[in-house]
Amino acid sequence: MTEWPRWDAPRLLYRRVVPTRSFRERVTQPVHDFVASHFRQIGLPGIVLLAAVLCDVSIIVKSSVDELGPTGIDLLLLPGIVALAACAVWSYRDPLPAGLTGSVVLLTSTALTVVVGVPSYTALLEKITFGETVAGVQLVYYAVSKLRPFRAVFVTVALMFAAVVSSGLRSRLWGSSENLLATAFGGTALLILTVLAGAYNHRGRAPGREHNELVAFLRHRWPLVTLLTVLLFMELSYVEPPPSLDILVLLCSCGAALSALLGSKFPFQTVVYYCALVAVSGILYQFTGPLYSTHYGLTLSQIASGMILVVQVFRYEPTMRATWVVGLQSVAIGFVVALHGSFSLPALRTPFAQALLVLGICVSIGMYLKARDSERNRIIETAVGDAQTAERMALARELHDVVAHHVTGIVVQAQAARMLAEQNPAVVTDALAQIERAGTDAMTAMRRLVRSMRSDAPAGASEFSEQATTDLAADLRRLVDTGNHGVTTELTVDVPRELPPEVARSALRLVQESLTNMGKHAKDASKAIVVVETVDGELHIRVSDDGTGNPERPRAKRPSDDSGYGLIGMRERVDLLRGRLSAGPSPEGGWLVEAWLPLTITGKDGE
Length: 607
Fold this sequence. Notes:
Layout: H1 9-17, H2 23-64, H3 77-90, H4 95-116, H5 130-146, H6 149-170, H7 177-210, H8 213-219, H9 222-236, H10 246-261, H11 267-284, H12 300-316, H13 319-339, H14 345-420, H15 426-453, H16 463-466, H17 472-481, E1 488-494, H18 501-521, E2 527-535, E3 538-545, H19 566-576, E4 580-585, E5 591-598
Parallel strand pairs: 1-2
Antiparallel strand pairs: 2-3, 3-5, 4-5
Helix pairs in contact: 1-14, 2-3, 2-5, 2-8, 2-9, 3-4, 3-5, 4-5, 4-6, 5-6, 5-7, 9-10, 9-12, 10-11, 10-12, 11-12, 11-13, 12-13, 12-14, 14-15, 14-18, 17-18, 18-19
């Protein structure tokens, strides 16, 4: 049940937005949140490690079914790769045992491959896979950045020894001197860079990294980062050493992948950069080695990056602008395809049909995501508007109930003092004292309400929540004793001490509003009777007077410039509790207000 006043727009927003989620979203969201929470903990290093392992899996699975060697024997490399990757993840918290265990795992995996005769492939280091290389780099990095110097050196030496022995044994020590020299040079450079990065991080610069907007942006897009990194790792396995220009093509592919990742932030600019990088790589491909794999002059990562950009451009840009931006991208890709193919129509027919099909799919996905975003924004705006309306209604009720009560007392006392001043001047002094007290109470109530809205008080704290939360009977007696309606009030209270806070607050406000209306509108009233009791699981509230006059008479005939929302606010309070309210002339004369509030709160929302 909603408590008033509760300035809680997020709660109302949640209740309105969540039911609109589809069944698929409700099922897949917990899995996505679980995976995303783990990637937020391990960050970009974990994403790169996952991509390296997936690249190993794709290469090894493909090699396991080729004609070289027994079928499936290459799969024996996977347990060692996965175990070493697990050690790298472990090193995020415990670098020392993780690094030593990783050394043992690498040596054990190497012994297995040598004894069984499992072939390995070369990534950056001779016969060391991508997953093993990235895992080793992370083990060294976290050892240097988190351990004391002696322990960091010990772990680094152990890992370096395991890598050298594994590379030598897997290559069976008869590799060409050129390969061994390239491995030694690449491994040394990689080790120096990793140690420098770890030492830099060890100096206490790590907190700045967590606030890096680019890192946080990429981490939240871990599926795309993983996919593109896997493709880049696979392309790296085809790169020939200098003087080949393969490395330059790979750098262009890396730039295209980064453009695709930033496409949601800067759709137009990233498309321009992508077109330039694709055109440059297409020209460079004319001078690269034959092993670099492309499709019509485009690498797999460039194709995937282009598809991602098309989706993002149509999702985040206006349709007209997205059309000509994607047209520019299509021209750049067409230039590269034409540069590496024949200009004859039959030769271009197949790539043109394929490109048109892929473009249509990407445009459809982008338009669908744009429509979904638009619908979600509309739902959120509607929910926020409803929450703001509910807040305004709560504020209106609070102002009317709290402030109008005290102001009515001031008006009544002033009218009485004006009428009796000539007969008994001493009455004026007493009336002024009561007016001063009522004004002070009104200012106190107003300050409490403002403090509640400004969040200077605890959540839900205001005069409304401070009263009638522990002892309704005592609060009602204080209300009657300090009332300024000018009418003798008889109070009868028979309620249990433990009442639901919503019921207690509403009961106090109903009595307060009834007495306020009586002071403003009841003519010739000399006595008021207030009865609050529990009957058959309900709180029964009865307020009656012996005067004359109708609270529903036209506003122009009222003695005060009241807004006339007293009974409306009372009905709203009762409806929120699923109770009943009646207000009208009493059979005995005067005016009668009765309300029945259930003691078991269910609310309209089924809460």
